[in-house]
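re the bet — no i am not wrong, look at it urself. input seq straight from the record:
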Amino acid sequence: MPKDKHTYSHNKLRKRLRRQVGAAITDFNMIENGDRIMVCLSGGKDSYTLLDILLGLQKSAPVRFELFAVNLDQKQPGFPAEVLPAYLQQLGVPYHIIERDTYSVVKRVIPEGKTTCGLCSRLRRGTLYGYAEAHGFTKIALGHHRDDMIETLFLNLFYGGKLKAMPPKLRSDDGRNLLIRPLAYCREKDIRRYAEDRQFPIIPCNLCGSQANLQRQAIKDMLTAWDKQFPGRIENIFAAIQNVAPSQLADQNLFDFKGLELNRDTTTPAQNPNREWLEEAIDPGQIFLSDNFLSDDVELSRD
């Protein structure tokens, strides 16, 4: 690609990511004036992109906030400990490297050949939560993006029996930390391109030697196939996460189904556009066309 065309393409991508991050921050009130934000930096494309976009927004944001990068060195064999400090020093970003040998703990507890990701992530989360609270950070910024959120939705649906995804903003169970995911509106393929263009010093994520999370990979493959075969389907799935109708599901904790009662006296029946053609098509002597039968919630075939 010619240099000028590549520059134009990169600038366009950068503006799109900035716009999407800005929209997510605004929609979910992720960043407020005076916030001290701990940006979790793993060395992967997502967290590099997160920090890069937040640094750009920090210069033009209408509120003042601090950014502080934190990496957890879990003592995985072959981990290039010098990469992140060198990168952050070059940027002039304040940072801290937490050193915790969680790798040995995971290897001791999890049988050989089994996926270690679950325990590893819990140990990592506990360490980061503790550091954020001890140092007075008001928000913890994570690099999860839109694809992560959708994958988690299907993982919980297929393997956990729950209609549950990954929220853009979350309070920890103990209420002592707030997590934000500013990349919530961003697509992974855009982040991958952006990271390649910016030439971030990526650290491989397979240093631990753990088996891949086969369930998540299966979901990722399914969504990739859908995206190619059915353009717009992924966007619709993400829109559905933001447009939930509890009364149309079956969770009794979210909607009082037992308390539903008739309410014919206080409401005026709405005019139903289906009534006229139905009255012409169906013999009134054969069926009673009540307003309930002609409700918009009832699907009727005209074939």
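see?? The chain is about 45% helix and 10% strand. told u. also Residues 288-303 have pLDDT under 50 and may be disordered. so pay up
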